[in-house]
Amino acid sequence: MEQPITFEKYVEIASASVTESGGCPVTALISMLQGKWKSPVLYAMSLNDIVRFGELKKEVPGVTNTMLTTTLRELEADGLVHREQFNEIPPHVEYSLTEKGKNLFPVFYEMLKWGLKYAE
Amino acid sequence: MEQPITFEKYVEIASASVTESGGCPVTALISMLQGKWKSPVLYAMSLNDIVRFGELKKEVPGVTNTMLTTTLRELEADGLVHREQFNEIPPHVEYSLTEKGKNLFPVFYEMLKWGLKYAE
DNA sequence: TGGTATAGTATGGTATATGATACTAAGTTA
DNA sequence: TAACTTAGTATCATATACCATACTATACCA
């Protein structure tokens, strides 16, 4: 049975991981989520296994071509998203979450629980 | 006994919470963590119960007066940090994490686990 | 001939984030 | 008298993030 971790224990583990690896893994993840459209795009992608550019543009309200492209490129560079290009006419592209990306969902789930608890 | 939540179940709960409240709680939390110094400052604050401005400036390498002030003000506005001012000479200020702020640690712990798993 | 479809890129602008440096008050200590 | 202390603020400069709009290629379909 899994015991809930204490605050003190977390700080202990976190401190150790920082001093060992040099960079903080938590900060690294948070920096992957920086940007206005990261969260909406990841959310839209979690709703479908495979998504195409045009579909994402519809499902993420307000995003421009430029920002959607930038966001997807960054997510791809961080290994959270996979991009597959089909050179037909008209050409199209299929986006999907990688395992690394899908495994963020326990993080998001903790965020969701926290958010529901402290929503005003 | 707590069962680990599945990806599909998470998406179901997340979708429901978005449509009910209008805004996504996960996005709201992520936006509280936007900014270069949020994570380092929160980390430094988690190491001590009470921290003073000058102490934070030492423990967060590279931060300027301006950015530290801005970051602390935003964290305070989001209810994650408490600020208490003492009007002595010289005046000083004590910063601490609120309950809301301390309860982020399960989120950070999930981030830490993910980060350690996918660190390159 | 002209419209449709796809996944963007190019360009130029505004807005926000971040940074560097100097400066403040007012009592205490050297 | 001058330096020290604290927690910032003020000012200006730079850098990054974000936005709006127009444009591309190429085959297919009407």
Characterization of this structure:
The structure is a homodimer of 120-residue chains. Chain A has 120 residues and is mainly alpha-helical. Chain A has 2 domains: 1-32, no CATH class; 35-118, Orthogonal Bundle (Arc Repressor Mutant, subunit A), CATH 1.10.10.10. In chain A, 58% of the residues lie in helices and 12% in strands. The first copy, chain A, is built from 7 helices and 3 strands, in the order αααβααββαα. Chain A has helices at 7-21, 25-32, 38-46, 53-59, 65-77, 99-102, 105-118, and strands at residues 51-52, 81-86, 92-97. Chain A has a 3-stranded antiparallel sheet. In chain A, a hairpin with a 5-residue loop joins strand 2 and strand 3. The longest helix of chain A is centred in the N-terminal third of the chain and has 15 residues, at 7-21. Chain A is elongated, with a radius of gyration of 17 Å. The interface between A and B is large, with 49 and 49 residues. Chain A binds a DNA duplex (30 and 30 nucleotides) through helix 4 and helix 5.
